[in-house]
Write a structure and sequence with these properties.
Number of strands: 16
CATH topology of the largest domain: TIM Barrel
Shape: globular
Radius of gyration: 27 Å
CATH class of the largest domain: Alpha Beta
Keywords: DNA damage, DNA repair, DNA replication, DNA synthesis, DNA-directed DNA polymerase, Methylation, Nucleotidyltransferase, Sodium, Transferase, Ubl conjugation
Organism: Actinopolymorpha pittospori
CATH architecture of the largest domain: Alpha-Beta Barrel
EC number: 2.7.7.7, 4.2.99.18
Helix content: 40-55%
Protein name: DNA polymerase beta
Strand order of the largest sheet: 11-12-13-14-15-16
Distance between the termini: 38 Å
Largest sheet: 6 strands, parallel
Cofactor: Mg(2+)
DNA sequence: GCCGTTTTCGGCCCGACTGTTTTCAGTCG
């Protein structure tokens, strides 16, 4: 995504936070928050848009469009500067502490002059919070604890780690007597590339028993909250797990609700409201008549509270006193979506990135699934840095039912792998021989080339012509300038032997940032030269990521979802690649390794002479 | 401050848990 979009998005988010901290209108804060998200995720570069173009962005109206324009004209937004002058940056940082929101942060600043996390720690140590309204002993303890957590780094884990943990917990809870259903939801079900916490959902005849089962697991370091419908724990690895227990008839609504994302849920609830319905985690309900009649009065109260910065009355009373309308549906997600006039939307699309509009228009993509993939096109063996033999890898590929499978060991310029022409040709003979043992599986002999700093690859054209497929990747010189890196990768695309650009940004999640490259230029080159971009399924890469995939697809680029397996077990990581591709709205037609072999071979011929 | 197939004004998603409170505000998801 273009940088200007992210910059403006960050500024609007900051403004939203500052409005909330200063006790401004809560609805106004929320609008800025929504605008921040839509700007950051908008598909056009906002710095190139005029006022009308800006107002075409969802949640951007006259006022916000003017602020964006002002930002590109002057380099700042006066309204933001004004609030910055009133509220030190450290106060906003305070709200990153769990359990400390905008209201309490402002109290700390107003009453005690606390303007940073360190200030807060000092005040706690000096006992200076004593007597402050709303800050009792438990709150002090929670704040200290929150600061500890904050300082232990971001706390998000990768998709592989989160999936393993979630499956362990769901497995354990499913065995608890009385547990009827159990699964995970949340960002993990949506397959976000990192996961900040786990949401586990269960139906149980005996909620207490299943709560006890969770809090009793060996991996529990701390019980954060314990109720009869919700329990939260923190694992020894620092990950929070929320378990919700719902009645069986609420399963679909609860699964929909706890899968999120928050932005997607806001949209679905709004749609329900417009149809006179109410959607909660307990189901889709009709809104009773008298509540309609009372709308004006209630609205007035809400409006006033909103202006005072208070909150509206929760609907809990209505539930308790039985004023709630009748349950319409909620047994399955499909029912819930259908009743509000939408087809079921795959979890990986639920980010409010246009899926609601597409669902309404009947143009939701039929996203690619793991089952659509007919073969892995980027794998290694122990000839280079893999840990399994060629025979083992091929046997595993055959067992997965693949129609084709490419072996792509490293080329000589990754010097540590000691590849030679002779070794490669010898492997090719072995591949051909092995192929005869697997009549249903077509083996492709390939290689993973190194794109050198100038954009050249390992072998001359005539040697490259002997491969069925060539992946080419950046493995070194990650710090080149943007111009050099762009020229380097574009040049690789223009090489007639190169079929796939492997892990295109070379990032390692949480360890190495993506290389600085003009991705738009790369997408253009890929589309022009029939070079596919890889969706590397390894959970520490997921490269390209979802947003980049969306952008590349708009250029007409094709993709290959590959595991880059270095071991037999890695072939199973494919699902994370499929999930990431879904988040990028890819259909089987966009993905070359879902195609029949003939079509794939035609694509792989590219610009080669033979 | 944005938005509209009920509306260009009057709404804006909904509920659980905690802590400190004695009826509820704040935070979180």
């Amino acid at each position: 995504m273009a940088r200007p979009n992210e910059q403006v998005g960050a500024l609007l988010q900051e403004y939203a936070d500052l409005v909330a901290i200063t006790g401004g209108d809560a609805y106004r804060a929320r609008v800025y928050e929504k605008a921040a998200r839509s700007v950051a995720g908008y598909h056009l570069d906002v710095s190139t848009l005029d006022a009308a173009g800006l107002r075409a962005i969802p949640n951007v109206g006259t006022s916000i469009a003017a602020k964006v324009t002002e930002y590109f004209r002057t380099g700042q937004i006066a309204a933001v500067e004004e609030l910055r002058a009133k509220i030190p940056a450290g106060v906003r940082e305070l709200t990153e502490i769990p359990t400390l929101g905008p209201r309490k942060a402002m109290v700390l600043y107003d009453e005690r002059g606390i303007a940073s996390v360190q200030d807060l720690l000092d005040a706690l140590d000096a006992g200076r919070l004593a007597g402050l309204k709303g800050f009792g002993p438990r709150t002090e303890e929670n704040l200290r604890h929150g600061i500890d957590l904050l300082r232990q780094s971001g706390g998000r884990v990768d998709l592989g780690v989160a999936t393993e943990l979630a499956e362990e917990i769901v497995g354990a809870l499913s065995k608890v007597p009385g547990c009827v259903r159990c699964t995970y939801a949340g960002s993990l079900r949506r397959m976000r590339e990192t996961v900040g916490d786990l949401d586990v959902l269960a139906v149980s005849k005996n909620p207490g028993t299943i709560m006890d089962a969770l809090t009793g697991l060996d991996l529990v370091a701390e019980v954060i909250a314990r109720g009869n419908t919700k329990t939260s724990i923190r694992t020894t690895a620092g990950l929070q797990v929320d378990l919700r227990v719902v009645p069986p008839e609420s399963w679909g609504a609860a699964l929909q609700y706890f899968t999120g994302s928050k932005a997607h849920n806001v949209r679905t609830r709004e749609i329900a409201v417009r149809q006179g319905l109410k959607l909660s985690e307990y189901g889709l309900f009709t809104v009773p008549r008298d509540e309609h009649d009372g709308d004006d009065e209630q609205g007035e109260q809400r409006g006033q509270r909103g202006r005072k910065g208070g909150r509206r009355r929760p609907a809990a009373e209505a539930v308790e006193t039985g004023e709630t309308g009748e349950l319409v549906v909620s047994k399955t997600e499909e029912e819930v979506y259908e009743r509000i006039g939408l087809p079921w939307i795959p979890p990986t699309l639920r980010e409010d990135r246009g899926e609601i509009e597409a669902a309404r228009a009947g143009t939701l993509p039929k996203v690619v699934t793991e089952k659509d993939i007919r073969g892995d096109l980027h794998t290694h063996t122990d000839l280079t840095d893999g840990v399994a033999t060629l025979a083992e890898m091929v046997a595993a590929a055959a067992a997965r039912g693949y129609a084709y499978y490419a072996i792509t060991d490293h080329a000589p310029n990754l010097f540590m792998q000691r590849m030679t022409d002779a070794k490669m040709l010898s492997q090719r003979d072995q591949v051909r021989a092995l192929g005869e043992r697997y009549p249903k599986l077509t083996l492709l002999h390939g290689t993973e080339l190194n794109i050198d700093p100038g954009g050249e690859v390992d072998w001359p054209e005539d040697f490259l012509a002997g491969f069925d497929i060539c992946v080419a990747s950046v493995h070194s010189h990650f710090n080149q300038s943007r111009a050099e890196m762009t020229r380097r990768i574009v040049r690789a695309c223009e090489n007639p032997a190169v079929n796939v650009i492997g892990h295109p940004t070379a990032r390692l999640i949480g360890r190495r940032p993506p290389v600085d490259v003009d991705l738009e230029a790369v997408y253009e080159a890929c589309a022009r030269t029939s070079t596919a971009l890889e969706v590397n399924a390894s959970p520490d890469r997921l490269d390209l990521n979802d947003e980049n995939i969306l952008a590349a697809k708009r250029h007409g680029v094709k993709f290959a979802i590959n595991t880059d397996a270095h071991a037999v077990a890695h072939l199973d990581l494919l699902r994370f690649g499929a999930g990431t591709a879904q988040r990028g709205w890819l259909t089987p037609d966009d993905v070359i390794n879902t195609w029949p072999l003939r079509r794939l071979r035609t694509f792989l011929r590219k610009g080669r002479k033979r």
